């Protein structure tokens, strides 16, 4: 008897779906997943072999139905989604889709904070216990959490960062209690939720990556003092300005084309010789000579100016990575060979 899509595991369906999407789109999807999920999916894709056309079509149809149901559910609730799907798929098929969707249809706690002014949130949370602050930041978008973390006192920054990194699971009741208290303080009313898995290294890395260089340095120094091994693990997942030495020459050249010479000169003040050499060898002889002259002409430069220029260049590097134009090796990433 031929296998059907309904008999496949969710993992296999996801693998089939990614293969049908093509490399570029699949890479974007994988980029949003945890490392363990990427490994599982990659292994499953390797095991796929030849995909039966009918099964592939069934999987695509199921994905489409789930996506449509998800959109309708957000617009009018699961009951509304079910009614609309019944009209097009029939009662039994619609119920199956909605049942699968409802199991995962939850909203992130503290969602109301996404609409709040980060400075306002900071004024309310900075007097809270560090564990409470860590819990709140771990649930927030990285860009916003970074602004709030940057506003905390130096010692508190390190404490909160450490707590985010080692956080695993938190009781839904505790999350709801903290959320309710913060909602009252901010006079906001939004839907409740009960997700409980938060924290870990990646949320912290995302937050630090969006912080200014001075905040990044303070957090990393504080983490290193508290937990050297954890600090090193976080550092291995981040891209620091000095890590430009690990980029291949083609990537460095792409970066240099998008960087202003004055920013480059300022960023290279006081850096290690290998960092400066990595940059100059990827310039023409004349451009390298001009750069060295400009660095010398700068004289004494405030550390904050150097860090700001370095941060601009790091943002260029991260943008190029996100667009797929360059690849950054982190931590224990495997090497690639052609």
Automatic annotation (TrEMBL):
Which GO terms of the molecular function aspect are on file? cytoskeletal motor activity
Give the UniProt entry's GO cellular component terms. bacterial-type flagellum basal body; plasma membrane
Boundaries of every Flagellar motor switch protein FliG N-terminal domain copy:
7-104
Q: Where is the Flagellar motor switch protein FliG middle domain?
A: 118-191
Concerning its family, UniProt says: Belongs to the FliG family.
PANTHER family reported for this sequence: FLAGELLAR MOTOR SWITCH PROTEIN FLIG
Q: Name the chain's protein.
A: Flagellar motor switch protein FliG
Q: Source species, please?
A: Planosporangium flavigriseum
- Specify the taxonomic lineage: Bacteria, Bacillati, Actinomycetota, Actinomycetes, Micromonosporales
């Amino acid at each position: 008897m031929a296998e059907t899509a309904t008999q496949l595991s969710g993992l296999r369906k996801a693998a089939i779906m990614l293969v049908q999407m093509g490399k570029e789109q699949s890479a974007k999807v994988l980029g949003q997943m945890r490392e363990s999920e990427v490994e599982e999916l990659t292994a499953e894709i390797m095991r796929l072999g030849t995909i039966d056309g009918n099964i592939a079509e069934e999987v695509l149809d199921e994905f489409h139905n789930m996506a449509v149901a998800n959109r309708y559910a957000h617009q009018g609730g699961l009951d509304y989604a079910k009614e609309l799907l019944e009209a097009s798929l029939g009662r039994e098929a619609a119920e199956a889709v909605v049942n699968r969707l409802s199991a995962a249809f939850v909203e992130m706690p503290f969602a109301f904070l996404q609409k709040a002014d980060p400075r306002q949130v900071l004024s309310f949370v900075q007097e809270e216990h560090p564990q409470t602050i860590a819990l709140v930041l771990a649930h927030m978008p990285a860009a916003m959490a970074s602004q709030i973390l940057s506003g905390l006192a130096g010692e508190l920054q390190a404490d909160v960062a450490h707590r985010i990194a080692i956080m695993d699971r938190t009781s839904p009741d505790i999350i709801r209690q903290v959320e309710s208290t913060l909602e009252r303080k901010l006079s906001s009313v939004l839907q409740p939720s009960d997700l409980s898995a938060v924290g870990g290294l990646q949320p912290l890395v995302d937050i630090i990556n969006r912080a200014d260089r001075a905040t990044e340095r303070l957090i990393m120094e504080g983490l290193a003092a508290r937990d050297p091994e954890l600090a090193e693990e976080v550092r291995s997942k981040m891209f620091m300005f000095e890590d430009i030495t690990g980029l291949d020459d083609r990537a460095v050249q792409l970066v240099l084309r998008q960087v202003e010479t004055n920013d480059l000169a300022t960023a290279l003040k006081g850096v290690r010789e290998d960092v400066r050499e990595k940059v100059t060898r990827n310039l023409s002889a004349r451009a390298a000579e001009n750069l060295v002259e400009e660095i010398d002409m700068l004289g004494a430069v405030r550390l904050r100016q150097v860090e700001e220029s370095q941060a601009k260049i790091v943002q260029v590097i991260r943008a190029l990575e996100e667009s797929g134009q360059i690849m950054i090796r982190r931590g224990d990433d495997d090497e690639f060979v052609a």
